[in-house]
Write a structure and sequence with these properties.
Strand order of the largest sheet: 1-2-3-4-5
Largest sheet: 5 strands, mixed
Number of strands: 5
Structural class: alpha/beta
Shape: globular
Distance between the termini: 68 Å
Number of helices: 23
Order of helices and strands: HHHHHHHHHHHHHHHHHEEEHEHEHHHH
Strand content: 5-15%
Amino acid sequence: MRRRSQEVLQVVARTTGLAFPPVICVQQLSVTLSHEFGSLSPHSAFSVLRVVLFTLVPTLFACRGLWFNSQPMNEVENELSTISPDLLRLAQQRNSTALLLDELPRRFLPQVIAEVGPPQRTWELTGLVHLHAGRPHETLGIFSALYQRMLVSQLLGDRRVHKGMPLVWMSDCFHQLGYPVHEKPYRLLTLCEDAIRGQGTIPPDSTGAYHRLVWAGLSDREFRRYAALFWERAQAEPKEAVFPEALLQRVDDDWVTAVPSAAEAFFYLASEEYVRWLLSQLGSPDGTALEFLADYLMSCMPGCRTRRRARSGSTDYDVVCSMEGSEVDFRSELGRYFVVESKDWAEPAGFTTMAKFCRVLDSSKAKFGILLSKNGISGVARTTDAAREQLKVYQDRGIVVVVLSLEDLGSIAEGASLIALLRKRYEAVRLDLQEIRTKKPAKQRKQK
């Protein structure tokens, strides 16, 4: 079957002009054929070709940009073998990702990985070995670790590092996985990095961002507009510009056109270093750091479109969120829109704060809200004050208010999933689950 599959793929490749990664294609085709046919007879060639043309080729056409400029597998392995044969041996192990994520950070310090050179290229090659082998989940972990390493290098060296390489490969991983809502922002983050390097101008042939975005539907005009916007924002806010996520938050969201696939519904990935940096900015007089953090964490949830500092005739909304796509989990009960309120206060938010927020939700006909309070809410220990109002408002009006504290945000910075956290807190309020609902922030536990 594998030999027959390869022969068919070669015919299709000659016909379409596409160069397919043979390992990935044969694996995918073998699975498809094994489900379609119990065995292949000599007169089943037409059926095999039909399966290829109508199930596999459309996907590969969509993925054409991914492999357009990538090296063949043997070239990647040969280059890695020349630079670091021991890392190639690790990459060929079954548990290669775990071994590499332990070895690479130990071998390459943040200061070393900042510059384009052998260390950066070595890390990239270990990721490409996995990408070509059809292991996008593991590849994503390798390039994500490289990206976080570069962010650390920036903070230690107090200078900007170009981070386009890991970001573009991460977007390709999402493309392979069929995660369109995750793919698009990482394409934009790559564009952001290239725009800063090119001071607002990006020649189409000099970057991987152009064809990945424009060929996928973003117009050339919009591409150039966003490049200019990113450069403009980077000049206006140089401290924030070291994080491309910060600049992406400061431009419009017209580029958000995809809805989440079923496969990515529960996948959650936020930049740990960016979350830590925002947490370090809490306590500022204007309180905007917590608003930006709330906006970012919500936007990383598949299908959640956010708008920060929205204003009505009577209310200022910190963050307005809208859910897009087909949710079949607890998010289907949140409604189309929900609101996030942030309180960067030294004390727990009290009854008045909870009551006012519930009134805002009521007036906007929202059935769900998130209160980001640095030190939680009052009355948690005995279900009094704000904690009692949290329960009563659901029992009386069917509105669920989920409270997230600084401790919760810290857990997300360490890799916890916001989706899982929201689900637990939502169920705790709706079902009055005492153990989960009455968990107090660390500061309140110490005071007691």
